[in-house]
Structures are given as C-alpha cells and as structure tokens.
Design goal:
Layout (H helix, E strand, L loop, with lengths): L4 E6 L10 H12 L4 E6 L17 E4 L2 E4 L1 H11 L10 H33 L5 H12 L3 H6 L1 H19 L12 H16 L10 H15 L8
Parallel strand pairs: 1-2
Antiparallel strand pairs: 1-3, 3-4
This protein binds glutathione (GSH).
Length: 231
C-alpha cells in the first residue's frame, strides 16, 4: 500500500471549509494511526470525480490499489490493515461498543444537530451545490430551510435532551474511550466539528462537560481539527 493515502473530503465554497462529519471521522482515525493522508476537496455535485468508487458519497479513501468507502468500513479497514499502529478500538469489545456510538451518532445525534444548523450550513456551500442540497435535504426533513431557521432556538433546546447521556458520561471521564481518545471519540466529536465549521451558533453551554471534551478533541493530534477554521 502507498505511503500517502488520498481522501475525498467534502468542502464548501471555501476550500478550507471541510465540514463532513463522516470525513472528519476518517481524518481523525488516520491521525490516530499516524498515517499521512492527502485530502482532495470534493463537492456534493462532483459525482463524476468519485464514480470510480462505485457510489456517490464521501468519504472515499484510496490506499494504493484499494478504494474503501463508508466511514465505518474505512475505520475497520485501517484497524485491520495497520494493526501495528495505535488501535482505534482497543479490543474486540471496544470495537463493538464503538459501533454503538457510530450508529447513535449517525441515527440520532446527526439529525438533532442538522435541525439546528442546516439553514446556516446551506450558506457556506459552493454555489454549484446549493440547489442540489436544498432539494435533497428539504425533502428529507419534510420542511424548508426557512422553517428550520425559524425553529432554531427550539431545535437547540431539543438537542440538549439528546446530549444528556453524552454530557453525563464526559463528566466522569476525559474521553468516551477513557483517558485517551479513540474511534468512539472521533465519531461523536466529528458531529460537533461539522457544526463548528458550518454554523456560528453555539450548540452547547461553554461550561458543560461536552464543551470541555470538545476543546480536548480540538487540541488532539496536534490540533488537527482546530486548524480548520470555525464558521
Ligand atoms: N454511511 C456513510 C455516509 C456518508 C455520507 O452520507 N456522506 C455525505 C457527506 S457528509 C455525502 O457524501 N453525501 C452525498 C450526497 O448527499 O449526495 C459513511 O459513514 O461514510
């Protein structure tokens, strides 16, 4: 496999605005495993650029002759292909529990965050993506971005209830994985990185356990996530 992998990574109008939570999971996993990567800025409507992967979503990771898609599949690929590097899961039990965090984040946390930030996110997209994004996401949410913007305060309040178990857990330990971060942290934190890059609104109280953990994750891996500017 090659020394430097290639990651197709979702970007906004500003090429530095890398906002995909799924791509962030992979970037943090690669940093954790100390594997260098070259990212390629990709937009939602650049389907032709990733047609070689056989599907239309990022992350797409190219490692030598291997092309791997889907963030969870990529995490398992990295863990199993590079077992001599720091582990993403720690153990078989850790892998199974990280899978739960993966599913909870994708199926519950993302929806709650999206309702709060999507009207802001729509404004940072590349112009070529704006119509596509509005059409597909308004259909998915069954309402307009304008209606979601009007309900932003209520949606942020609803998010706090979703976040309660995450907050109480992080009140008792520095990271979801314990004393140091691993893939469960990469997954959950990437949702907050998505919000940070996409929207100027504050989703969590600054004195909360999640906020303290978020700062730790922004500093992790030599400040990889912090190096991407906030919205
Ligand atoms: N299950 C996939 C989800 C990937 C995904 O939904 N990626 C979004 C960007 S965050 C995407 O590429 N969407 C393309 C589109 O909506 O057309 C994973 O974990 O990687």
């Amino acid at each position: 496999m090659s020394n430097t992998m290639r990651l197709y990574d979702l970007a906004g109008a500003n090429e530095l605005a890398r906002f995909s939570p799924y791509c962030w999971r992979v970037r943090l996993a690669l940093a954790h495993k100390q594997l260098p990567v070259e990212t390629v800025a990709w937009r939602f409507t650049d389907k032709a650029a990733i047609a070689f992967s056989g599907q239309g979503k990022v992350p797409v990771l190219v490692d030598g002759d291997h092309c791997v898609v889907d963030s969870w599949v990529i995490a398992e690929y990295l863990e199993d292909t590079y077992p001599d590097r720091p582990s993403l899961f720690g153990s078989a039990v850790g892998r199974s529990l990280a899978r739960f965090v993966n599913q909870w984040t994708s199926e519950t946390l993302h929806l709650a965050i999206a309702r709060a930030i999507i009207s802001d996110l729509a404004k940072i997209l590349h112009p070529q993506d704006m119509d596509y994004f509005r059409t597909t996401r308004e259909a998915a949410f069954g309402t307009t971005f304008e209606n979601l913007a009007t309900a932003q305060v209520a949606n942020i309040e609803a998010l706090q209830r979703v976040l309660q178990p995450l907050n109480s857990t992080l009140g008792q330990q520095a990271f979801l994985a314990g004393d140091t971060p691993s893939y469960a942290d990469h997954v959950a934190f990437s949702a907050f990185q998505w919000a940070r890059v996409s929207s100027p609104i504050s989703l969590i109280p600054t004195n909360s356990s999640i906020a303290t953990w978020r700062e730790r994750m922004l500093d992790a891996y030599d400040g990889l996530a912090r190096a991407t500017p906030a919205s």
